[in-house]
Amino acid sequence: MSKKNIADKIGFVYSTDPNFQFNRAEDESVETLDPVKQPLIISLDKKQRGGKTVTLVSGFIGQFEDLEQLSKQLKNFCGTGGSAKDGEAIVQGDQRDKVLLWLHKNGYTKSKKK
Fold first, then answer.
1. How many CA atoms lie within 13 A of 67 on its CB side?
2. What is the rounded distance in angstroms from the CA atom of residue 79 to the CA atom of residue 99?
3. Are the C-beta atoms of residues 97 and 103 closer than 8 Å to each other?
4. Strand, coil or helix: what is 76?
5. How many CB atoms lie within 10 A of CB 21?
6. Which pLDDT does position 1 carry in this prediction?
7. Counts for the chain of helices (H) and strands (E), in that order
8. CB within 8 A of 70, min separation 6: which ones?
9. Residue 64 · residue 84 · CB < 8 Å
10. pLDDT top residue among 27 and 39
11. Which of 22, 55, 63, 100 satisfies CB 3.0 to 4.6 Å to 91 for a cystine?
12. pLDDT digit string (tens) for 17-35?
């Protein structure tokens, strides 16, 4: 599929009006908070995952690239797989204790287990 045919975030694809001009709104980039100010919540989840258990780290405030970096570091520390989706870092398995240990060691002091 060509990149020019991909719809933008609000669903606008094409207009037949020759006078129409689409003004793309600039994305409001959220500034990533310091690790000390991040209120992260660590929880366990099995819903809609085929019975597999995952550790969720939610409550991250910042850019998606920073969340992906955090998720990558957590996965490397725990030695498991995972991803970053919908504002949450996902680590495979029940890794709540390891994740909390890593977060506290790296300055995320407001982190807590749910």
1. 23
2. 11
3. no
4. helix
5. 6
6. 44
7. 2, 5
8. 57, 60, 84, 89
9. yes
10. 39
11. 55
12. 888 776 665 555 678 889 9
Token pair in block for residue 75: 């996965």
pLDDT, averaged across the chain: 86
Strand 41-45 and strand 112-113: the pairing is: parallel
Q: How far apart are CA 48 and CA 59, in angstroms?
A: 20
C-alpha count within 13 angstroms, C-beta hemisphere, residue 40: 31
Assess contact for 42 and 114: CB atoms under 8 A.
yes
* Strand, coil or helix: 3: helix
Is domain 29-113 in CATH 1.10.10.10, yes or no?
no
**What single letter denotes the amino acid at residue 80?**
T
Task: Say how far residue 51 (Cα) sits from the centre of its chain.
Answer: 22
In single-letter form, the type of residue at position 101 comes to: L
Which amino acid does the sequence have at 12? F
